[in-house]
Amino acid sequence: MKAGFIQFSPEFGEADANIEKALSMIEKANADLIVLPELFNSGYLFISQKEVDAVAEEIPAGKTTRALCAIARRKKINIVAGIIENFQGDLYNSAVLVSPAGYVGAYRKIHLFNEENLWFKPGNTGFNVFDLGICRIGIMICFDWFFPEAARILALKGADIICHPANLVLPYCQDAMVTRCLENKVYTVTANRTGFEERSGKKYSYTGKSQITAPDARILYQADAQNDEIGVAEIDVRTARNKKINKYNDVFTDRRTDCYKKLIKTKI
Fold first, then answer.
1. Residue 267 banded pLDDT, cuts 50, 70, 90
2. Which of 21, 38, 57, 209 is catalytic?
3. Residues 165-213: pLDDT tens digits?
4. Contact 176, 217 (CB under 8 A)
5. Which residues, 6 or more positions from 7, have their beta carbon under 8 angstroms from its beta carbon?
6. By C-alpha distance, which of 113, 168, 105 is closest to 138?
7. CATH number of the domain where residue 34 is located
């Protein structure tokens, strides 16, 4: 199958323009699975709760999910995209998954970064894996990469590909995803945004370099740091289902869970 990402710089608060931009890029993508950045339709650097409220949408009833469902159905493509979810008045940094058959599910970001803690509730969906037939995918969002448990849980639940919408400002993630793939023998697709946002004396510069990484730690495709880009790579999900390192070692069956119990404590 072909898996890929859309990388671009959303305009803050301009949902219609951002959706249109993403749709036009999806139209050009020759892929079975495409991942869009975190909060792709809204921008990221909020300075008030009122701003966040204004761009939050219900899932799947909101206009963004409906637009993604329509193009997924027409192009016969699966899409993962980051948006702000309004669920019964509670706001979440979420990612929606749609397929040619329609809405599939959503993930709510568990590890909130910096001032996200002011605007969003921590995610409560857990780390779920969705079987699309051609592959099994897990979803994590941006700062979730910092916690190896996120990718590990998704891999243990059977994910072949971890889809990773992001608005990265720290410079480490792209390198870290090599390790996440190697230690779990999974594919990852990190869809990062580009550009910068400067509002009320605050400035975030985004790192771009969206990346598709293989279970053997090879970087199959990496975008540059600044430009709009559609990145696609051929992947074989059977590779992600073989967890053997050699004749005697397997990344899952070799785990000594009896020795890991202290990990659930705050301090060891």
1. low
2. 38
3. 999 999 999 999 999 999 999 999 999 999 999 999 999 999 999 999 9
4. no
5. 37, 191, 192, 193, 194, 208, 210, 223, 227, 228, 229, 230, 231
6. 105
7. 3.60.110.10
CA proximity to 182, closest of 239, 259, 258: 239
Site of tokens 């997924």: 72
> 21, 69, 109, 209: which one is catalytic?
109
Q: Beta strand pairing status for 102-108 and 129-131?
A: unpaired
Give the C-alpha separation, 258 to 212, whole Å.
33
Identify the active-site residue in 21, 57, 69, 142: 142
Q: Is 92:109 a contact under the CB 8 Å cutoff? A: yes
109 is catalytic: yes
Residue 111, both tokens: 């590890």
Question: What is the count of structural domains for the chain?
Answer: 1
First CA to last CA distance, the chain: 43
Our answer to whether residue 142 is catalytic in this structure is: yes
DSSP state of 57: B
Catalytic site includes residue 69:
no
Tokens of 255: 């785990």
* 146 contact partners, CB below 8 Å, separation of at least 6: 111, 176
Task: Name the amino acid, one letter, at 259.
Answer: C
Count of CB atoms within 10 A of residue 162's CB? Answer: 29
Q: What residue numbers bound the domain in which 96 lies?
A: 2-264
Residue 208 is given by DSSP the state: -
The pLDDT of residue 261 is: 83
Write the CB contacts of 99 (distance below 8 Å, at least 6 apart in sequence): 72, 78, 79, 132
Report the alpha-carbon distance of residue 38 to residue 17 in Å, rounded. Answer: 16
The one-letter amino acid at 150:
A
Write out the H or E segment, with its range, that includes residue 150. Answer: helix 148-156
